Amino acid sequence: MTRLSYLEAVLDEVEKYSPEQAGLVVSMDRRMDAAALDECVSLAISLRDQGRRVVGVDLCGSPLAGSVDLFEPFFKRATVAGLGVTLHIAETEENTAEETLRLLSLRPDRLGHATFLNDDARRIVMDSNVCVEICLSSNLLSVFDVNPLIKYADQKTPARKQKLLPFRTNMTAEYAKMLKAQTLRLGLSENHVRRTPHMRLE
User: Fold this and answer.
1) What is the pLDDT of residues 43-98, one digit of tens each?
2) Which residue from 162, 182, 192, 199 could staple onto 133, CB 3.0 to 4.6 Å apart?
């Protein structure tokens, strides 16, 4: 199966739902080489221009792989073409502040994880009001003491929970995890938990 035929198959399913319910964000893995990244962006733009429901591109994959020097031109091209940009950033303590700040300079529409932001990066995120997607199940596989939801809830930064299916969870289970603050040491108050669903709508 080619990358094009794969995307077309996914879009055939996505487009069974209304635009408000589903759109496709094309994933670009950090381990991809320049040719693969170029193909992903080219296909995303081409399919969108054909009227297919491609809404953006996403930097994902192994959080320490690749370099911003390689990714940057492809995400800039996607932005110029009018596609949304999602960046999974600061997923580990080993992700450098320099890398995080360079990725934030691409002015993403949405961030994945953003767990280990330093003060400068957090300020940029708060000031730009960019949406931060957080999956407690995913982050808690390796991180128990850090929970960015507290900071985002206090600052009223848009946040969403994501990636439910790969981790065999659902929204109810994710909210239940948030309420188990003492058990999981998340430090969330009941007010933080109550605030989270509204953060998605504002």
Assistant:
1) 999 999 999 999 999 999 999 999 999 999 999 999 999 999 999 999 888 999 99
2) 162
Sign of torsion over alpha carbons 91, 161, 125, 157: negative
Give the residue among 112, 88, 86 at the shortest CA–CA distance from 25: 86
Look up the pTM and report it: 0.73
184 band by pLDDT with thresholds 50, 70 and 90 = very low
Beta carbons of 28 and 66 less than 8 angstroms apart? no
- Tokens matching residue 97: 């502040």
3-state DSSP helix/strand/coil % of the chain, to nearest 5: 50, 15, 35
CB-based contact 37:28 (threshold 8 Å): yes
Task: Give me the helices (H) in 81-131, please.
Answer: 97-104, 119-128
Give the integer Cα–Cα distance in Å for 190 and 174: 14
Positions marked active-site: 91
Q: What are phi and psi of 87, to 5 degrees?
A: -125, 125
Say if CB 44 and CB 52 are below 8 A apart: no
Return the CA Rg of the chain: 17
Residue type, 155: Q
